[in-house]
Amino acid sequence: PGESTSLRISISASAQPDTTAAQLTLDASKPRYRLDGFGGNDNASPTDNNWAYYEAQDRDGSNLRREFLLARQIQDLGIPYVISIWRMPKWFYPDPTKASGKLHVTPELWPELVELIGTYLTYAKNKYGVEPDLFCFNEANIGVDVLLTAEEHRDALKLLGAHFDKLGLKTRMILADATGPRGTHTYALPAAADPEAMKYVGAVAFHSWGGGSAADYSAWGDLAERLKLPLLVTELGVDAGAWRTRAFDSYLYALREVSMYQE
After folding, report:
1. Long-range contact list for 107-116, CB < 8 A, 24+ apart?
2. Dist. CA 92–CA 263, nearest whole Å
3. Cα–Cα dist 43/28, whole Å
4. In angstroms, rounded to a whole number, what is the distance separating the alpha carbons of residues 144 and 148?
5. In which region does residue 129 sit, left (phi positive, over 0), alpha (psi from -120 to 50) or beta (all else)?
6. Which residues, other chains included, contact 94 with Cβ-Cβ below 8 Å and sequence gap of 6+?
7. If 0-12 CB within 10 Å is exposed, 13-18 middle and 19+ buried, where does residue 229 land?
8. What is the full per-residue pLDDT of the chain (263 aa) written as tens digits?
9. Degrees (nearest 5) of the Cα angle 118, 120, 122?
């Protein structure tokens, strides 16, 4: 009693790998879904294209030129690609003083927005010979950064799709591009039920952030299968913010990602 002592120990883990042969049974009579791929962001008149402005902005070292050159590099490699809108000029929103994110487009400015997007794509085609395969607003179901209701999303498909056709562009629209797989397939349903909107859709897409159940993934697969369109996971990962943390480089996080790929 009253005495103290200390002990220092070293602990290491060891394990023998399980080399037992694995058995895989494949039931070829019950095919599921085809997964086509996954990825990993002017003037006052809506009838007049301001080509002089584009020429002035497209200069050596500019972000605009880098975007066009990157698109051409991807296209030359034969890789299908999506062009996606995130932030827009604040004057497109009802209250330009608010920060971007979760903001609707001012209704009367949609013609101007359509003209802006069409001008960008036409310039890219004419000057650099590039045409994206698909177009979308990024995660518009939650507003990153443009917020569209399911009905507004349906109407945007028709508005932009018709304009792309008028301009002779091959670019098709993406249905949904929704955040996360959990119950989000319902966001696509109003557009999926509209034949006029579906004329312009080239693929169905969602992002995998947070993961989902087998039923969640099946709901997306069923929708794409019913519409006879490819299903894309246009952003694939477990945690959209993991890159900001040390966990992103961990073995455990890598296993979580691999598990999600398999799911």
Report:
1. 110/159, 111/46, 112/42, 112/44, 112/46, 113/88, 114/46, 114/159, 114/160, 114/163, 115/46, 115/47, 115/49, 115/163, 116/42
2. 39
3. 57
4. 10
5. left
6. 103, 104, 106
7. buried
8. 999 999 999 999 888 889 999 998 989 898 887 777 777 646 667 777 778 888 899 999 999 999 999 999 999 999 999 999 998 888 899 888 887 789 999 999 999 999 999 999 999 999 999 999 999 999 999 999 999 999 999 999 999 999 999 999 999 999 999 999 999 999 999 999 999 999 999 999 999 999 999 999 999 999 999 999 999 999 999 999 998 998 888 999 999 999 999 88
9. 65
* E strands present in the chain: 35-38, 82-85, 134-137, 172-178, 201-207, 231-235
Task: Output helix, strand, coil percentages for the chain, rounded to the nearest 5.
Answer: 40, 15, 45
The structure's pTM equals 0.85
Task: Classify 30 as helix, strand or coil.
Answer: coil
71: its two tokens: 């698109």
Structure tokens at 3: 């005495």
CA–CA dist 138, 51 (Å, integer): 26
